[in-house]
Structures are given as C-alpha cells and as structure tokens.
Amino acid sequence: MNDLHATRLSLLAGGSDARTELERAIDVSQSAACAHVFTRTMFDEARQAVAGVGTETRLAGLAFTSKDLFDIAGQPTSAGSVVLSHAPAASADAIAVARLRAAGGVLTGRTNMTEFAFSGVGVNPHHGTPANVSDAATPRIPGGSSSGAAVSVASGAAFIGLGSDTGGSIRIPAALNGIVGFKNTARLTPADGALPLSITLDTVCAMTRSVRDAITAHEILAARRVTAGNAPLAAYRIAVVKNVFFDDIEPAVAAAFERSLKRLRAAGARIEEIALPELAELATINATGGFSAAESHAWHRLLLERSGAGYDPRVAQRILRGAGMKAHEYIDLIHARRDWIARVEAALAPFDAVLSPTVPITAPSIASVAPGAERDDEFFRINGLLLRNPSIVNMLDGCAISLPCHVPGELPVGLMLWHAALHDDAVLAQALQIERTLQNQ
C-alpha cells in the first residue's frame, strides 16, 4: 500500500488524480474492513472539496480522517459518546482539522474512538468496535483510544488519521495495526477545538503509513519544519531501558523486538542497555489517580450528574476516580512530576533516543474484552498492559514514535523510539533510518 508521499508523486507525474484516489478511499471506507470505523462520514463533502484542491499542495487532495473529539464546523462533537449526541454544532473547525484542510487534505469522516478517549483498548459499546485489519480470521482489538483513526489508515481508507495521545492513544493503535504513530512534544501542537481528557497530558498528533508521512503530518499540525538530517544509524547512541518496559511481555513481541535490535546493531547502531530506576516511582506518584482522572472529572462532573447512566461504565469508573483527589494532592502531583522529569531527563541526556516495545502484547480478540461486567477484569488487565509503556513518555512530557517491527505472517508489533521534550526532530531523524533498516530485513 503506497504512502502519502508516493501517491502524491504519482499525482504530480500524472499517474493518477485526486478524484480517483478519493474514490478508492471511499470504497475502502464503505467496505467490511471499515465496519464501525466512522461515527459520521462526509463523502459528498469530500467530493466537493477535492475539486478545489491542487496537486501542488502538501496533501494534494488526499484523504484524512478526524477522531470524533475534534470540532468540525457545523457538527456536534460527541467524542465517541451518546450523551453529547445533541450537543450544539461547532462553530469552527479545530485548529488541527483546519490546518490539514489548508494543506490540501480532504476530510472523509469522523472516526470512532474509546468514549471520551479514556482507554487504550478501543472498545466502544455505543458505536461498535472497529476490528484490527491484521487478522481476517479473528476480530482483534484496534487499540485506543484513536481506534477508528488507526483502522482508517491501516485499511487504506485514509493517508492520515488525526487523533490524540494522552497515555498512548496514537502509539497503541499504531503498534497493534502495523502502522506509524508519532506523539510529538505536547506543546508543539495546539489542542484548540479538541474535547479534553487531560489538559496536562493530551497531545494532538496523527497516524500514517510511513515515517516520512509522519513528518509531513507533524509539520502541518505544528506549523513548523522538521530538521531531520540524514546521519547514519552509527551516528546515534541509543538506549534500551530494561526495567518495566519488558514486564509481562509476550514471546512474540520479545522475539520481534530482539530481532529488530540485532538488525539495527548489524546496520551500525550503537545500542546500550540501561536501567532507569526512576520508573519504579510512578506508581507512588500517581497513587491518588493521576492527571487524567482528576482533570477529566473536572470536565465531566456536571455531565455525569445529568447523564451518567449513558456513559460506558468502564469509562465512568475511571473518571469518577478523580472525584476523590484533594487540591493538595493535585498540587503535589504537579511538583512530583516536575521533579521526576528533571531526573529522568538527566539520566537520558547521554543518549540520542531510547528504544522500547511500544506495548508488551499483540492485539487480543475483541470477544475477550467486549462490553460486559463478566469481562471487566480482563479488560482492565489488557488496558493496563497497553498503557504502561507509552504512558511513561506522556508523564515525561516527551516525544515518541511507534513503527512496525514485525515480519509478514506475524501479528503487528510496534517499536517505540522516544526521548524527552523537544527531541522531536532527532527522534524522527533516527526513525527514518530505523524504518529503512527494518524494511530491508
């Protein structure tokens, strides 16, 4: 499946045209592969929009999708819920949507998501759960919370899936679907017009089919240029943190990760194993519920009082945990995080990036975690495993990219390359080299 860059080059060379590419995307969007992917489609609007877009624009009239928590002018923003289905229509596009449109992207629809973005699994009891495209025999979870956005990209329905990442909501579904997900340093992309989960941790970002497309999407969303360079892998010093990230890892994930390290070392990468004892402090730091619970409860408390019965019970349970956090506990959390970030940044300063498994498991079946109290224990076990690794980077206020490291015939496995805040360009430069090396294995 061609990425955005290759498709745009074909458009410029006359090998295709934007209308044809849009109809291909719409055909996929209407296929069984995209069941439950969209909460609302915009195909007629997209057909009208593509007529006015030139191939000289950065996105050249190619399709993108938007997670249901972003405002789109003239539509209510329901964030995967039913309790907001009658909310007033947005008066303007979210900044992220507006920037993608201004760059020549054509929006084909709003994508399904975990209700209010509060889970890494991707299950939605209101709109159904989109199935991971990697296994035709067993419907598997897409990962969340940007579930529909991931499947739209992995299936070929879109070139960019606009989403958000609070504890891994871009990187988890990217890893489980075998695509690329880049979580930039949060402050680089504006969240105006996006319904919040955590104002401290939320990051506006996207999923794509390649690292070079991830760079393009980030440059548009952040209104900046990435300086990636072309240094070889041997120019970088990369760490592998051995504690926490590999706990409870599935054999298939461990094998893919070790195979990737071997390949990268053979290509000249200087990879060193280190310990990061500061990771053991996170459970204590977040013991009172963490930022997501407190900040989501502040946003939802009145809506829960009026319409709590309409919430996904699993989501409501997590939001309500924030009701018990005291003001001094929230302030202590802010200070503890700031101190923790400073010490972790100092530990990582000698390295250009860190490599980890994005998540320690492959995608389980939807049936094993489907809505139902009898499956709640398994749902929360899986959710904890999926969030654990990527959420460390959010707590760090860092940047990270997940790229596929499996081989054909295997379920998708993600390789996460990450570092502290504002190391975005270095992470992307290394990701280009790593992607090139792994694709040649």
From TrEMBL:
GO terms for molecular function: catalytic activity. It comes from Variovorax paradoxus. This is Amidase. InterPro entries: Amidase (IPR000120), Amidase_CS (IPR020556), Amidase_dom (IPR023631), AS_sf (IPR036928). PANTHER family: AMIDASE AMID-RELATED, TRANSAMIDASE. SUPFAM superfamilies: Amidase signature (AS) enzymes (SSF75304). Residues 22-428 form the Amidase domain. Pfam families: Amidase. The lineage of its organism: Bacteria, Pseudomonadati, Pseudomonadota, Betaproteobacteria, Burkholderiales.
